[in-house]
User: Fold these one by one.
Assistant:
Number 1:
Amino acid sequence: MSYDEASHLTDHDIPTRIMSVFLDMPEGNNCGFQELGGMNLPVLGVSRAPFPRAGGMVAAKNRDGDTWPVGGGNGPMEHIAPGQHPFPNRLKCINGFTYAVCYPREIYKRIAVGKWELFGAIPCPKQELDRAGFNDMDAFSDSDIYAVGGHGDVWHFDGSQWRQMGFPSNVQLATVTCAADGNVYISGEGGSLWIGRKSTWKRVYKGESSLLWNDALWFDNKLWLASDYQFRIWNGKELEQPVTHNGEPVFINGHMDAYDGVLAIASSSVVMTFDGNEWRTIVAPYFD
């Protein structure tokens, strides 16, 4: 299907292609893919131990929250919340468990293969639907979890229940990061950045971007942030621009994740990894 043909379709009708790269195999013969139909506005995530099969997951914003596991065998299709229109904004893996961060104030936890359950009941009156909801979550532990979204909508889970936290702004919130330095970092409208915990927050950077950050994560003792056209680091004092390595800029943007000492970032045409010492290009641009 050409780009022109796809531009006339709804997202639900455009096939979703899932690519796999096997780094332990020779280049040129280490990629594979499969296509799924009906995956409206898909989001990508991972699932790890304690499940018997670790791998990727892709979830759709549709009536059932269709979710397809990938890796070590594919499928069968799972459903986050059948008939409930969960509309997952993000799949977040914390301590091996995958959480579907959904609109408006719903989080579902994958507790077994094919089984998702609502992770605590969080109130969301109808009059708040236009300004409440979750775009991201993160945790220090099972009894110290944060979720953010909506317009200044910040919540904390203490192991038994969720409580709404105070926040000094009603701008749209995008990401939350529970960092190894003990701080919680929240990013929001314009690319702005706040640091704090519970109901105490300080804005440390006022952004003027037209896009929200896609991801923000703690890696190599720094906060890394990526959007569709920016890739920057908060070094504790300022937002570095651009990200550099050995004095040279690193030209990449998009979405990222970090695990087991490796950061990975992917744009629409390039995938790169960083182990704290060396950048590697895993997928290079393809020129027809």
Number 2:
Amino acid sequence: MSTPVFALEPDQVAGAFLSACRLDVTAFKPGNVSVSAPGHGMRAEDFLVSAEAAVPALSAPALSVGTRILRAVEATRRVVSCNTNLGILLLAAPLAQAALTPLSVAELRERVRAVLAELTVGDTEQAYRAIRLAAPGGLGRAERHDVAAGEPEVPLLDAMREAAGRDRVAAQYISGYEDVFDVGVVIARAARERGELPEQAAVEIYLSFLTRFPDSHIARKWGEPAAQAVRSEARHWLEQLQRAQGVAQMRAILSSADAKLKAERINPGTSADLTVATWFAIALEESLRAEYHGSRAGGPGRRPSVNGGSSV
């Protein structure tokens, strides 16, 4: 008997996304905005209201990836005056699309690959409009498929391929979200087995991304040498945290790192965006697996909680 196709409901996708965005600001990630430490002219509330504004477009049925990105950015700009979530939305839209599309496979990674393969020139056009509206710092110019230069002529996957060497968000489109699944998700699941709190695991994931490659956001704004310098420092911070004895010592390490980065006006935004995408992916895949087993049994799938505690 063939496995029936199935998909998540919009409310499941919405819940998973909002949970990931809440964890993004409750985790104390050095250099980023959190409930414990505002910075870069922004507060945690800016990111929370941005998530609430963006989630209807991100979780709506029957939209293209490009439409999700553009509508979510438009909604965000109506509630905040700065770029709080462009990278998050660029990463989240294909993940949401993969979960909302009726398919017969439970593995989110396979679903994402199928979605990426179907991206069109229309998706590129709408994504470019979203990027221009969000106006991220340090965007620069490209020789081919430049965001600021006229109408695009290639599908979004091809445009991302052109940018993948200089932008880690674009690289996820080309690799099938390799960093998210092979780094972030692996670390999160190991953290759950050790009994770590989601906030603690989120910091570990964030610093692990920051140590594995130069953060694209830092490189765009401050140059590759600055990004490499932060990468080296992040290795030291991660080692310190792994040796730390107790919450107070961990907090002191994070506070020192956070103060240093913010004093230098450095925000490792790409590593943070990948961390959000990781938590979003975990929650979606857990729900998809429940729906898969329910469809195999001939009944509705179990809908697990998508709050922060169930995401690791």
Number 3:
Amino acid sequence: MAFIDYYKILGITKSASDKDIKSAYRKLARKYHPDLNPDNKEAELRFKEINEANEVLSDPENRKKYDKYGKDWKHGGEYEKAQQQQSRQQSHYQSSQRGQQEFYENDYSDFFESMFGGQGRSSNQGHFQKFKGQDYHSELHLDLKEVYTSNAKILTINNKNIRLTIPAGVENGQIIKISGKGGKGLNGGPNGDLYITFVIGNQTQFKRDGKNLYSDIDLDLYTSLLGGEITVDTFDGKVKLKIAPETLNGTKVKLKGKGFPVYKKEGEFGDLIFTYHIKIPTNLSEKEKELFKELQKIR
């Protein structure tokens, strides 16, 4: 396998900090995201490379192995375990005959070769320890509207397409695990797992706090004093609200069940809370000023 320079892909140096890596990844991921580059194969390839580089360099252990073993970094842990195992075996059998020692050395050699592409002897395969494959880590960027309902996404991880059903109500920063979708196990060991971190942006007028949504409504002075009816937006359509006479600035009104869906609880929703902000009229006409003066005298 050819060596891939993950530092070069992210445009950083080997001395880059974790913060530098995260910043470089997010900048490039936004630039080459498939949603922003439809039908652009070159951008799609760059996006895959960027994700792969981030998966390795953002994990301290993986980065350490990559820096030490280069293109063979995925097997770094198994190589080190094999070295430790060999050391223990040699210590335990240090009084054994030379021929017995050679047996263990050959056994270890076959193990090393099997990991890094050598042929090895099939007669020694039974001595190999099974190792779980590498865990993968990835970020999935979504907008708040996309997680209001359950929907399916196809993720590309290490050139493999994974169909993922995202339940409604996932939180920003929430991590889910998909078992067996990580790296391939070694010597018949189980595959690693895939961990996905949700990064949820918000381009709506609503502020989300858990299962509840919050929004501000500008209310004109006359409606706040005399009462009336207004039409407002909710996450799933418009509704009419009755305004009570003499509504005060900062008054809150709750619409039960009009908030955000609760994660993995079908049919359960939070509340939508509106806060009224009364707008004082400006650029008054002479007639309006006269009327307000009359009101002032009456009061």
Number 4:
Amino acid sequence: MEGQAIAQAPAPRLAWLDGVKGLAILWIVFFHFFKTYEDNRFPDALRDGYFAKFLNLCGADSAAATLLCVAKGFFVAVSNVGFHAVGVFLLMSGFGLTFSLARTGNPLDGWWGWYQSRVLRLFPMYWIAHLIYLISPFQAHLEPLDYRFILSFLGDRIIPIYMIFSYANAAWWYFDLILELYIVFPLLFRLLQKAGAGWFLALCGLATIASRYVLLFVIPASGNWLLGGFFGCRLWEFALGMVVGLWYRQNRDWVEARLFNPITLLAGALIYTAGLYSYGSRITYTLTDALIGTGLSVVIAHIAYQSRRLPAFESAIAYVGVFSYGLYLIHQPYVIYFGERMRWMPLYGFVAAACPIIALLAIFSAQLEKNVNRIVNLEVKRRDKVHSASAEDSATGSTLGGGRAKKAV
């Protein structure tokens, strides 16, 4: 059973990879916090004329005030697009799963054991997050508790998609997207092995565009399907992560030399910018998440990689990244609760107050995830010991029985 691997000492981690996940989850948390606080008082950063509207809103009357307003506008814009970091997590998820399998080409205990380990990784903390939502104070409860809570607890965040996708804790929609990708991962992994990286990316890219095109033009459906209700609409980000994970396992130095250089950083920034402009029409929206996930992953990877120059900062974001799953699961009801009560604050005051709240949430969720993982690991060890003892008794009994039968003859 691959559950045994969970209980063993962890393999050495990639600091920059954990740093990417740490930066991504902190950006997402701050985005949810900020969106609640700002309550549509600022212009939409993804619409034309954003900075002109923001400067008009500021009413700056001097060059210094204008510069300050531009800086404030940039900060607000970055805060308002934090949801883009979801694509980074998808790419990192594909990277991590493939990197761990690329050395052997197969799970140690087969795909059934691999699925078991994924369930043990995902569900216990997900269930705990639901229980915390029920009993913890200082959380926003925007919808009544009803049958949808039971469906969500069981892992359903897509049917009926109009009613459950954003129910209770809207961030939980991502859980089903990851489940879908885990279900198809063995097929994707075998396709990558058989077809090679180039054909694999071409096929996954075409599948992504086709999925989004069909849902936009052929059978117009809820935007939630494109956001993540159907994995095909987000397949490119996951598939690209798989390819990079495979290459990184095969030749780490080669990948780092090409990934962490100024030209790649510039390319990533340009791809991300193209993704921002792709919101302009429905036809270009078929490319939006692929462009944003690709470009932004490169940019954030560079930030995380360069953070090694600041060891304390590197350690902090890597720590958050290691336990990003717990923070993702519990943060949103808390930041909505506090964000609603901090709307009276000026922007600078809000940021000063939000940072320690987010830090406390990160610390709390990390400790919670540690304890949940420890309990799960202990249970896995206990079950493995029982299983081993049962198998040994069965084998011994079979041998003794055979001996008695022989003697009787």
